[in-house]
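Researcher: We plan to redesign the surface later, but first we want a full-length starting point. Tokens attached.
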């Protein structure tokens, strides 16, 4: 019994990440489109004082704008949502692949190779520049500056 319970827990822990539940109510949990696509009727169409249309036209315009925006978005997402999801999935998979199999190994290889150059550069600096700057420091160490105020 304990073994069966352990196996069940292991299956739950190893549950595939691709089958996780998604939130159908809050579809932007990280707020990436917080300030991008909030366009309402009042943000697009406004009548200044003194140039009002008929109330019925204004109400019909509001309803037409709101409903057409809603259904056009739903239609476009139904037609293009899945193909674009495949395209974006492929693109991010390609970026991940290139990063894992090309970029990181190149950087690691560069860092290994540059270590040798770094040691040679450090040796040259310590060999030639250190004695020069030590000599200059001894020469300049006896310089004294005095500030006098003349009246």
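Model: Full-length starting sequence:
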């Amino acid at each position: 019994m304990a073994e069966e319970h352990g196996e069940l827990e292991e299956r739950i822990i190893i549950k595939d990440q691709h089958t996780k539940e998604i939130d159908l109510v809050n579809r932007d949990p990280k707020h990436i489109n917080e300030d991008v696509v909030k366009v309402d009727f009042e943000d697009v169409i406004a009548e200044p004082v003194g140039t009002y249309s008929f109330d019925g036209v204004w109400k019909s315009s509001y309803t037409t704008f709101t409903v057409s925006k809603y259904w056009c978005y739903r239609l476009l997402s139904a037609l293009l949502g899945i193909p674009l999801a495949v395209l974006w999935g492929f693109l991010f998979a390609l970026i991940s692949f290139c990063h894992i199999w090309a970029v990181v190994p190149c950087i690691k290889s560069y860092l290994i190779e540059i270590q040798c150059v770094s040691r040679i550069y450090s040796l040259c600096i310590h060999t030639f520049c250190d004695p020069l700057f030590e000599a200059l420091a001894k020469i300049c160490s006896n310089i004294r500056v005095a500030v006098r105020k003349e009246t």
